[in-house]
Amino acid sequence: MADLLKAAPRVVAEDKAAAAAAAEAANPWQQGASFPVEQFTAYTSPFGYRQHPMGGHRFHYGLDLAAPLGSYIRSWWDGKVVKVDSDGACGTYVLIKSGDWSHVYCHMQGHIVVEKEGGRVMVDRAGGLEIRQGQSVKAGQRIGRVGMTGATTGPHLHWGLKYQGAWVDPALVIKAMYREQQL
Q: pTM of the prediction?
């Protein structure tokens, strides 16, 4: 995931008009999109440049949504799981592709299992979840639980969105969903 973040060729957030247009594109919220975390308590870190909690100033490619440890995470939109993995920054994560949109969910509980055949599965036994790379998911389907894996200072979901390969501020998408009363 750290490589994915570093390799981002464009960052839509720097152009508010383009970001707003991307947030409106394809209108996924009119097709049954779902707010990505149950038991949401607060937004703890916005999209954009920030003082990183572990030192320095960095661009934050997502929106942090605080919730109690173990709260279920739901897929924002129908799609296909293209990657389940774990790294030092994002921790245990799931990456889903939905048409022109990609959505990543970081700092999840559970661990990654590499099967004999080479398949990868995110396993969270306590939450009763197994998410396989390559499986289809529906909007609102539980895909994980809020954890503290990777670089984190507290339990939260880091939710990142890309539209046609460019990072988009998830807050703009949430605002568009709210306007359409789809939350």
A: 0.81
For the purposes of burial, counting CB atoms within 10 Å of the CB of 34, is it exposed (0-12), middle (13-18) or buried (19 or more)? buried
In order along its 183 residues, the chain shows pLDDT tens digits of 334 334 333 444 445 555 555 555 555 555 678 889 999 888 887 777 766 666 677 766 898 999 999 999 999 999 999 999 999 889 999 999 999 999 999 999 999 999 998 899 999 998 899 999 999 999 999 999 999 998 888 899 999 999 999 999 998 888 887 777 654
Could you tell me which residues come within 8 angstroms of residue 142 by beta carbon, excluding any fewer than 6 positions away? 72, 73, 74, 127, 129
Tokens coding 164: 């046609």
Q: Which of 2.60.40.1120, 2.70.70.10, 1.10.10.10, 2.20.130.10 is the CATH number of 2-179? A: 2.70.70.10
Each domain of the chain, given as residue ranges in start order, spans 2-179
Q: What is the 3 state secondary structure string of 120-172?
A: EEEEECCCCEEEECCCEECCCCEEEEEECCCCCCCCEEEEEEEECCEEECHHH
User: How many Cβ atoms from other residues are within 10 Å of residue 54's Cβ?
Assistant: 10
Contact 105, 61 (CB under 8 A): no
